[in-house]
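hi! just following up on the protien thing from before. the input was this:
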Amino acid sequence: MAFRTTLRVRFGDEDHARIVYFPRIIHFFHCAFEDFFDHQGHPYRRVLDEDGFGWPAVHVETDFHSPIRFGDDLDIDVSVAELGTKSATFVYEASVGGRRTASARITVACIDMKTFRGVAIPDVFRELFSRHLVEG
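and the predicted 3d structure came back as:
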């Protein structure tokens, strides 16, 4: 089952065309990634600073379906498409009022924050990710 969070689109997120500037959408997906941890008992700051695990993006694929504008409440569904030993691929589906706006597949690697080397995903996060694993 997907995790859902909602973000309010701010004035500064738009470009001159009065739609959300496309790099901001990747930022929104990262905000949803942080919420994914925060709202499920693993504050992202603690994961980084105390638990010592980072999750840098190593591959990003994004599609833009329809404009997002200032004032929109952007619903973002987050699920896990692939769960490897040291990496996971997250799927993001963004919508406004049920209208599909953007989607992405973002692969993150699990790293030790002290060495910046890849490490196996700890069991506690593997279990968290597994709860949101989707078929296909």
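The chain has a mean pLDDT of 97.
Strands lie at 3-8, 53-54, 57-64, 73-83, 87-96, 99-109, 111-112.
cheers
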